[in-house]
Design goal:
This protein is an alpha/beta fold. The protein has eleven helices and nine strands. The chain is about 40% helix and about 20% strand. Helix 1 packs parallel to helix 2 and helix 5 packs parallel to helix 10.
């Protein structure tokens, strides 16, 4: 079986990292390696990862795209999987990833993301995020859509072959939507696939904004991105929430 490297960019993720790492500890089959790439956390993030016997690498300056590229350079697996610290995955994650990429026509993939909180599942927001994977490329990149483009976002646990990742130059150095940009590059090498399996992510941003505001922001950012607006400008509407 191919070796899968799981890369987790972190910055002050102590509230959720322990749970995520626990789930990764029971993967069957296990990951080839798990790397936490920390951007200078001031909480217990690094201590939690170290206690779990996870390799921690420091990346400065911080920035999710920079940290994930840094982790990809350090990774030894032939498949890379990019995981947010607040996202939980099924215990057969590795088998699903390997089986998906056995199809040589597929260059990359991700999962269906379900946003959850304490006694709450954000069904409406989650449905919109699922549909956005399809309607965003259909509207803004229709030719690429019919060649297999699907736009994946951070909570969807994106994965691809290491060779293809570097063939495309890795993640662009942008403050937001770096996964979507990578999809635009990867589709030159093959289809992008949304696997029919669920991962769950924290609803902390939706809880902070409220459902209507969150949906509006996601739509606004997606439309402006599709029209070519700078990610630096779009980042102003997407505050960091821990």
């Amino acid at each position: 079986m191919s070796c899968v490297s799981i890369i987790i960019p972190t910055l002050n993720e102590a509230s959720c990292l322990e749970r995520t790492l626990h789930q990764l500890s029971i993967l069957n089959p296990p990951a080839g390696e798990i790397l936490v790439i920390d951007g200078g956390s001031e909480d217990e993030t690094v201590a939690i990862a170290t206690k779990a016997s996870i390799k921690v690498l420091s990346c400065q300056p911080s920035g999710r795209s920079l940290q994930m590229n840094y982790g990809a350079k350090a990774a030894t697996g032939d498949i890379l999987c990019f995981l947010h610290a607040d996202t939980c995955v099924p215990d057969d994650l590795i088998a699903v990833i390997v089986a998906t990429l056995e199809d040589k026509s597929i260059a990359g993939g991700g999962f269906i993301s379900l946003m959850t909180g304490f006694q709450t599942t954000r069904w409406g927001v989650s449905l919109h995020n699922y549909l956005k994977t399809y309607y965003a490329p259909l509207i803004f990149r229709p030719l690429l859509f019919f060649k297999g483009l699907r736009l994946l976002f951070g909570d969807q646990v994106m994965f691809c072959r290491r060779a293809d990742f570097w063939d495309c130059g890795g993640f662009n150095d942008v403050p937001i939507l770096e996964e979507a940009d990578l999809c635009l590059k990867l589709v030159r090498l093959g289809r992008i696939c949304q696997v029919n399996r669920i991962v769950t992510s924290s609803d902390r941003r939706v809880a902070h904004w409220g459902t209507l505001k969150a949906t509006g922001i996601y739509l606004y950012i997606g439309i402006l991105w599709g029209l070519g607006v700078s990610p630096t400008y779009l980042k102003k509407f997407y505050e960091d929430i821990r």
